[in-house]
Amino acid sequence: MLYSETIKVTKTGTSKLKKLDFENIPLGRTFTDHMFICDYHDGTWNNPRVQPLEAIPTHPAAMALHYGQAIFEGMKATITDQNIPMLFRPDKNAARLNESARRMGMPDFPEDLFVEALKTLVEVEHKWIPPQEGSALYLRPFMYADEPFIGMRAATSFKFIVIASPAGPFFSKRIKLFAEKQYIRAATGGTGEAKAAGNYAAAIRPTEIAKGKGYDQVLWLDAVEHKYIQEVGTMNIFFKIDGKFITPKLDGSVLHGITRMSVIELLKHKGYEVTERLIALDEIAEASENGTLEEAFGTGTAVGIAYIQEIGTEKGTIYVSDESPVGLEINNTLSAIKTGKQKDIFNWMVKVESNE
Ligand SMILES: *Cc1c(COP(=O)(O)O)cnc(C)c1O
């Protein structure tokens, strides 16, 4: 074992792993035996530790509950054929957590300790990583204000925690989107770039309404004109028109997806042109009508790539071709890199030591 020197590890005597049926994992409801936890007070992060997962007593005045200082990350650990646990670009999640923290008036978490925390937790929990192709151990780092205080200012005490949840292979059916013109997700100058808990709270109701109309996800449009495409649900979005890829530019309202960034690099590496720019919904409708809309997909850690079937708009339905050969190829490349089946030419993977 190669536990980090700074992180204290206390293991449970009673693992729940025996109860897990790897063929049938309830999504988002199963948690591993341990968590990483670290406390912020007096201006520093203290006592980084991996300990048995347990409930945390919460003061009813904890500021996160009232004023929403709460942010999170989402990432995955995979395991190779040689039984080596791997993390996908954890440095990017570390940097993005701190971008979110700054926007929300929260303290930075040291980026090397972030990566060390994930490695240590995954090392302890490596037997929980489902081995099937497309499965992974989902990791949820998050930070929230736990100071008991009534009043509007930045909190002075926080917790940073990482929990882990095994996730079976995700077979995404092609999704139907509802282009939302009444509600918005993010405006320039707002918190759309931050992975802030409140952004998701505000998206719940519009998503339920879209689902009630038979759609799977909301296609978010810009806050001012309701004309330009931002992203889909909790994914970034790509279109292929006439052989070229386009994706909305990062204008301050779009989440900086790490899958988005990686897909752009992969597409360019495969010789495709990728342009980041403003994309009007009408432009996609036109491309669909004149037969040049070749592919459309969402990208995110949870699903990888989710193929889009159609987009419902007030002017009618935009249909997307039911083949997405390049999207499929990119999806396969991504999962082959994550499981060590394909050479990691971009140096994205970070190995986790484990000698069992
Ligand atoms: C997390 C998230 C994404 C995807 O980011 P990844 O780093 O690729 O997982 C996209 N949009 C929103 C709103 C998100 O919260």
What can be said about this structure in brief?
This protein is α+β, with helices and mostly antiparallel strands. It has seven helices and 18 strands.
The gyration radius over C-alpha positions equals: 21 Å
Tell me the strand percentage band: 25-35%
The name of the CATH superfamily of the largest domain reads: Aminotransferase class 4, branched-chain amino acid transferase, N-terminal domain
Instruction: Give the domain tally.
Output: 2
The low-confidence runs, each spanning 5 or more residues with pLDDT under 50, are: none
Assign a percent range to the helix content: 10-25%
Principal-axis shape: globular
Task: Name the hetero compounds present.
Answer: pyridoxal-5'-phosphate
Helix/strand structural class:
alpha+beta
Order of helices and strands: EEEHEEEHHEEEHEEEEHEHEEEHE
Q: What's the total helix number?
A: 7
Count all strands and give the number.
Answer: 18
State the end-to-end distance: 8 Å
Return the CATH architecture of the largest domain: 2-Layer Sandwich
CATH class of the largest domain: Alpha Beta
Instruction: Give a quick account of the main beta sheet: strands, pairing sense, barrel closure.
Output: 9 strands, mixed
Summed over residues and divided by their number, the pLDDT gives a mean of: 95
